[in-house]
Amino acid sequence: MSCRITSERRAIPFSKSAKEAEEQGLNHPCAHYRPLFPVLASKIHLASCSQGVISKTVLESMEEYLNSLLTTGVNWNPSIREVEKAKKFC
Fold it and tell me: How far is CA 68 from the centre of its chain?
């Protein structure tokens, strides 16, 4: 079981899901994101670099992009549409 160290220097087990976190009293505002990162069920990620853990949604997007290269090659129109959609969130 993975643990984290609190400011009082006592270990608290990490949960594998937001529901378990809530049940254990670890009601963190970002707990609902934890299930999106499968590796966090068994590992503690301490690095803060560009090669961090990959979420399920990022993996799905990467697979979709690679499949599009296999089936249609370089097709800028869908890519430009995705960039335009992303700009609306900035």
Answer: 23
Beta carbons within 8 Å of 72's beta carbon, 6+ residues apart: none
Q: Which residue has the tokens 């296999």?
A: 70
Please write the tens of the pLDDT for every residue from 33-84.
888 999 988 888 888 777 888 999 999 989 988 998 899 888 888 888 988 9
pTM of this prediction? Answer: 0.55
7 and 37 belong to one structural domain: yes
**Residue 3 contacts residue 13 (beta carbons within 8 Å):** yes
In a domain, 49, yes or no: no
The tally of domains found in the chain comes to: 2
